[in-house]
């Protein structure tokens, strides 16, 4: 499952290129609780087809009713001056209840009518090429400007302009094609990650069964180098085999990957760190970004439960959350006095 923004923009591009009238809605402001964060987008085709979301569904239903019924068919056409429009939902308690917003929730949308097909095509092209792009729209004329961005930024809205940053999809590189990797890859795809799985062992790679993933057979350190992890990438080693995991992790630590981790018991992870320090000239400082045992503590034992714990930690790090020590696997096991020699595949 690809990045949701790219999915929305690609559908909107195709509708407009096909001559359809269409609408793009962007969540601009929220007050109190809201179902979708600021910057979320959705696209609405003249037929009533919707891609993306700005709420739990009720606001989408209202937009469909307002802009696609026969009596309102012309409403989707671009306004004469090309200007987008703001609309608020959930201002009163009755409206919040009607539109399914949480108690006290209010959100404001910017509606763009018939966005320019050429500008959409260029934006999608840049995103598919791995670019990070700021899309700015003049609120008076509806004119769109695309500029390269160096880092993701929050949506900005002034009286004259709205600027929203779109980035390429997040990527996950998994070392090892075992059972737990299949669960983790599936969850990662549902969370919008593009997943690459590396395993030179045919006996593992041959049984891989997760559609939509890229599977490669080269040595993991070479794959990491070719993968070129960036700030929207994570690398997770799951083989338990030092010949496969260690060199790949060393390559990943030279990158900007936001998350680098390895599966294993506390004893195995301590042994890995000692190997990397003794034989590969690493230091505690150079290994500070290496996470292990990976995952948050949820008492997980089975492969799917462990995958849930790992995915939860990846998402927390991606979202900039500092996890409390009570969720750190090694810390909890130490507090409980659990022996470090436990199974290498149990992280929770």
UniProtKB/TrEMBL annotation:
Residues 172-314 form the XdhC Rossmann domain. Residues 15-73 form the XdhC- CoxI domain. It holds the Pfam family XdhC_C. This is XdhC family protein. It comes from Ottowia flava.
